[in-house]
């Protein structure tokens, strides 16, 4: 199953059992965004390089915590 189409819970379960990495989850999310963004214009800023770097770092450390490795978007109402 594509990481971009999985729920957060399914992603965490797949990461816990070793069938999904944070890097793959983030890559799938970025690919999905790239396909849909020209139509929906939902993103103001995407730090793809930073997201991939963070995912690789997380995978290297292991034991990511409850939502570690699950890609998220932050609504623009929140100061980032």
Distinctive features:
single chain; 80 residues; mainly alpha
In terms of per-residue confidence, which ranges show pLDDT below 50 for 5 or more consecutive residues?
none
How many helix segments? 3
Assembly classification: single chain
* Mean pLDDT across every amino acid position: 88
For the sheet with most strands, the description reads: none
Class derived from helix and strand content: mainly alpha
Radius of gyration: 13 Å
Strand content: under 5%
Order of helices and strands: HHH
End-to-end separation in angstroms reads: 31 Å
Q: What's the helix and strand layout?
A:
Blueprint: H1 8-16, H2 22-40, H3 48-61
Summary of the model, kept short:
By secondary structure, the chain is mostly helical. Helix content is 52%, strand content 0%. The chain has three helices and no strands.
What does this structure look like?
With 80 residues, this protein is mostly helical. The chain has helices spanning 8-16, 22-40, 48-61. It is globular, with a radius of gyration of 13 Å.
């Amino acid at each position: 199953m594509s990481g971009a189409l999985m729920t957060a819970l399914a992603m965490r379960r797949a990461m816990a059992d070793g069938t999904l990495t944070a890097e793959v989850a983030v890559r799938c999310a970025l690919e999905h965004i790239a396909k849909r963004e020209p139509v929906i214009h939902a993103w103001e800023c995407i730090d793809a390089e930073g997201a991939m770097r963070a995912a690789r770092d997380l995978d290297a450390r292991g034991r990511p915590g409850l939502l570690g490795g699950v890609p998220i978007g932050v609504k623009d109402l929140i100061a980032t």
